[in-house]
Amino acid sequence: MAVLCRLPVSLSDQDCYTFGMEDSNRQGVTIGEEERRDFLKLLGITGSIGAASQFSLSDVRNALGSGTSSELAAMGEAIRSDLTGAVDADVLASSMSGVATAVDSLPAVRSAGFPAEDATPYQELTAPAWEAYRHLSDIGFFASAEEHLPAYTSEGLATTTQELVRAEPLTSTLTDAGFSEEEITATVASVTSQQELLKHWVPASDLPTDVSEFDPANVGPLHQRAAGGALLWIDGLDDHLWRNKVLITDEIHDRGIEHTKTMLGGLHLMTAAAHDIAGPGEFEDAHLAAGLAGGAAIMIAGQENMAADVYRITDDMRADGGL
Amino acid sequence: MTDLSNDKAVQAVKNTKVQKKDEFFVVDSPLNEPVTETHAADMIPEKNVTQEMLTGSGSNADAWLMYGGGYKQQRHTTADVITPENVGDLSLDWLFQTGTGSGELEGSPVIVPGDPPVMYQTNGPNHVKALNARNGDVFWSYTYSNPNNIRPCCGLNNRGVAVYQDKVYMTTLDANLVALDRYTGEQQWQYNSAEPSEGYANTEAPVVYNDMVIMGSGGGEFGVRGYVDAVDPESGEQMWRRWTVPEDQWIGESWQNGCSTVWMTPSIDTDSDTIYAPTGNPGPDVWAGVRPGLNPYSNGTLALDANSGEPQWHYNESPHDWWDYDSPSPPVLFDAEVNGEERRLTMSAGKVGWVFTMDAGNGQLVERSEPFAQMLNTFDLPPAELEDSPWIMPSADGGSEWNPASYDPNSQTVFVKAMNYPSKFQWDREEYETGRLYLGGGFTIAPEMDDVEYPPEEEWNRNLGVITALDPISGEVKWQDWYDEFTMGGSMTTATGLVFAGNGSGEFIAYDVESGERLWQFNLGASINASPVSWYDPGTEKQYVAIQAGGGGLRSHKTGDAVAVFSMEA
Q: Do B256 and A218 touch (CB under 8 A)?
């Protein structure tokens, strides 16, 4: 068993998602009571929706009702307008297929144990995702997303998450990527665990200008940082796990897999939403915006969790004994 | 002692007005060009320093030819006159006052053997003297002409020179490298490595290897892009540059402000032709949200091919750092048995508070030590507001700051001097004021805060500094000696089982390497923020130990201007 905790990390924290490694290529997910409460609070749902063990996105969706955010709809429409004709559906479809394959292979990657020196099993997982990232960068997708989408204030995050819950056609695409219903729920809810940290991640346009320490023009758009950063953390596992073998426990290793899957899920949501711009037009504009903003939030939360649970290894977390 | 009252180079430093304005140093220098004053230059033996001498420096009892003693930077002398049994009789041989004013003494002198041996001693801002190492007589002195509005973040120090053939090399506060004639002190050439207006600066001692002067830069608080340069020692031309922020592993254009500067002296494995560069914080210091990912090659050890500068491997001690946990302390190379196999290893004692022992060939971690200073809420992320921050240790000062560690190969013990107090951190989108340092957030340290509730004493013992002896293979702490005051600078070991170190209270101490017992000490009356060196002089049949006492730099309890040399007859 492994746990995915809120920060600050405490291994004994009872407020943790609990994952159980299964024989199949999926991992069971349950949500702790506090996360369930936080998630519902963020969404503005005051009624009781089952116990954590039976908590599902469809229950939450039903509780939210059928409304939609006109604000997000306008944002989605603006992004669709900016990018119509620029998105290459084939590139993104291929990328999503590759991400699904990567998710499918995660148990095997974990079972293989520590990567060998200079081996790249984790970088191989992200190769298709980088294709989508590069394409979206090239067409100005991230700049458009940052221009139109809300910042991760408490209000912005609540609106985004509400709409992401309602965007059933979008979130259900995660099923194609190998996520169970419980995992989809946990993935969407993961943004709840990092609400404070998400505030660290501000749009580049909100950075102070004329700063001597860095040029804000060099800072990538928020959603580019979310996607690119997530992939960098996954890629880094090849080197990190091998180089720090002496410090890595099974639990740390498991968490690396779990956060990888969460971030790939976030990327899949973002890519699916972008793909819709290229033609299918299956998603409402508000759902499109929520998919982009929510997918990025999931990837940011995943990065923060990955850093805390896998890369920054305190003495309490580390394995005993040297090589 | 030489009369320095009319020494133009000394007077130039004394007449330089330095004003700290916010995070800048406004320098009003009387110099438009460098100045050299000659006293007794003809006394310097004209025997060039060869590569063979540099390669053998670490094992040559008569010499200390580079910052860390030898390329491995063990700061270990093979001179064996001073022992645990007789160190109680160690006495002051000569004490020299730099004459340049108080403070800015963080350096490590270089000793070129001869008759007499010559000491090349530096202090800030960019002042060098060639001294008779037997008595402190000045052969020549030199002061570099720094421009105004330079931006070294943490003081105007200089930590030492490199020597090769007939030249002395010093980095400058405006991020240049100068070559001086070692016999006359006259400047030969200047290499402009980077623009100080962009935030670049330099205080490190360069190192010469295989006809290259190796240097990095400071500037990690000003959004620069770090690098390592190799410079032709004869002409001053750049031979290669290796940027320490790889573009393809940063998002957007953030690599351009990624810092990761090499602001302390690299170590070199002469067997494998590998440079081990200590790297600093990513930029901006405490707002990682604008630079996602692991932020290579920050906060650790970067191994480079010495011939090309090509990266070999990198170890990051604080990935995606929020706490300014640089790893500037020079890596220490050593050989040791690990699980029955003799291996070449490198270790790093950075601000994050552990010693990382790695395979020198590939950088795989062999062991991470027990903490060498207290830890508290380590890696807790900064909240938006300072008042919401927990106390966090190590503080933003470390851990081990730039303090060079020393190693005793006989007892397999590394000695680390470290700071020991908590910080509070915050991130926020503070309003930026033109010309001010911008860290993206902020931090403070407990000793600078009044009317706050400190952590309980079981979490922070109230000592501001500590020296720790530990086994880099097992990672176990052998002993510690806690200090009342800020503690910067390094230590030095002897072949006979001693380790010398100073502290912020001005105590210069000789410890027994195994037990940590204080066997001898001498109070120099000013903070010892520098690192000791030692040599044996066949001409006098004495072993000498030199240390600078004058404080300076980031944290300094009491300033002064002394270079103290102790000796013992064989």
A: yes
Mean pLDDT of chain B, nearest integer: 94
Burial of A320 (0-12, 13-18, 19+ CB in 10 A): exposed
A217 touches chain B (CB under 8 A): yes
DSSP-based three-state secondary structure for A213:
coil
Give residue-wise pLDDT tens across range B454-469. 999 999 999 999 999 9
Q: Tell me whether residues B438 and A202 touch, CB distance under 8 A.
A: no
Q: Give the ipTM.
A: 0.95
Which DSSP string corresponds to B153-216? Answer: TT-S-----EEEBTEEEEE-TTSEEEEEETTT--EEEEEE-S-GGGT-B--SPPEE-SS-EEE-
Quick check: B440 pLDDT over 80? no
**A228–B223 C-beta distance less than 8 A:** no
- Per-residue CA distances from A5 to A31, A310, B172, B517 (Å): 10, 12, 48, 45
- Chain A CB within 8 Å of residue B435 CB: yes
Quote the tokens at residue B401.
Answer: 């700051």
Q: pLDDT-based confidence at A27, cuts 50/70/90?
A: very low
Contact of B558 with B524, CB cutoff 8 Å: no
CB contact under 8 A, B222 and A221: no
Q: What is the CA radius of gyration of chain B?
A: 22
The pair phi, psi for residue A145, each rounded to 5°, is -60, -45
- Report the pLDDT value the prediction gives residue A194, as an integer from 0 to 100: 79
Q: Any bridge partners for residue B229, and if so which?
A: B215, B241
pTM: 0.94
3-state secondary structure of B323: coil
Q: How far apart are CA A311 and CA A240, in angstroms?
A: 7
Are residues B247 and B255 in contact, defined by beta-carbon separation less than 8 angstroms? yes
Residues of chain A with C-beta less than 8 angstroms from the C-beta of B377: 8
Is the predicted pLDDT of residue A209 greater than 60, yes or no?
yes
- pLDDT digits 0-9 by tens, B6-45: 999 999 998 888 777 666 677 777 888 999 999 999 999 9
Note whether B381 and B322 are within 8 A (CB).
yes
Spatial CB neighbours of B397, under 8 Å, sequence gap ≥ 6: B351, B419, B421, B423, B445, B554, B555
Q: Where does B428-476 show beta strands of DSSP type E?
A: 441-445, 465-470
